[in-house]
């Protein structure tokens, strides 16, 4: 199915990396416009300054403030997001994509919503010789059932958020606004991301660890690429979500 209807609104391709709070704010603003019926759907692509983005649940850990101070001193500020999931290291060489649309709450709707974002991305990678699919990768960062995976290694993480449509839109009781998000490992040295994530876990007295061997970036998958891989990928992903 098409990723988005004809009246999709797409943000301009990003140039500077955003502070994570600004990027998250723009995602929620996109979702709110769909909730209010101002647009049927929309796409946002953005890059993020170096940081660790964590779910609000981690803020209840006794050592959380201590861990935030320790990571901030190392150049990895910790930013709390409202949604669930787990710790996600961010850096300018990663690409964040948010797709918002209206969706009925029916059996299989969560899977369908993930595939509204994942399938176009998978299809766009195929001409590059990259065979991606959706799967869980235990031990990868912020693991879930709809990671984008290449040969068993995680290329992207995904998450989604649902909100009831505003009453003035005339939407039915089973109709919601959905925001599906992906963070794609594009052109960034990966080792520092996992080192920072695991340092946070240690400082926060959390036993969990990220396994660096379970990840792969587009730069690794396309070693012969001679251009600006970030820009090329932004253009490719933006185009595939317009179809």
Automatic annotation (TrEMBL):
Gene Ontology molecular functions: ligase activity
Keyword tags: Ligase
InterPro entries on file: aa-tRNA-synth_II/BPL/LPL, BPL_LPL_catalytic, Octanoyltrans_LipM/LipL
Domain named BPL/LPL catalytic: residues: 37-243
Protein name as annotated: Lipoate--protein ligase family protein
Organism: Marinobacterium rhizophilum
């Amino acid at each position: 199915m098409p990723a988005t209807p004809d009246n999709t609104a797409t943000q301009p391709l990003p140039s500077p990396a955003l502070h994570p709070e600004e990027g998250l704010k723009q995602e929620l603003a996109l979702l709110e416009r769909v909730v209010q019926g101002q647009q049927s759907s929309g796409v946002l692509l953005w890059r993020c300054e170096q940081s660790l983005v964590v779910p609000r649940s981690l803020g209840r850990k006794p050592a959380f403030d201590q861990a935030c101070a320790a990571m901030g001193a190392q150049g990895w500020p910790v930013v709390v997001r409202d949604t669930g999931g787990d710790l996600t290291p961010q850096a300018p060489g990663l690409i964040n994509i948010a797709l918002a649309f209206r969706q009925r709450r029916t059996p299989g709707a969560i899977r369908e919503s993930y595939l509204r974002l994942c399938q176009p991305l998978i299809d766009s990678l195929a001409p590059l010789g990259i065979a991606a699919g959706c799967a869980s990768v235990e031990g990868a960062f912020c693991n879930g059932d709809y990671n984008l995976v290449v040969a068993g290694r995680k290329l992207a993480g995904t998450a989604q958020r649902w909100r009831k449509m505003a009453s003035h839109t005339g939407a039915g009781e089973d109709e919601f606004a959905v925001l599906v998000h992906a963070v794609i490992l594009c052109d960034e040295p990966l080792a520092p991301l996992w080192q920072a994530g695991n340092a946070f876990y240690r400082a926060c007295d959390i036993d969990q660890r990220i396994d660096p061997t379970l990840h792969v970036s587009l730069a690794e998958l396309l070693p012969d690429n001679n251009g600006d891989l970030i820009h090329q990928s932004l253009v490719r992903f933006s185009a595939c979500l317009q179809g």
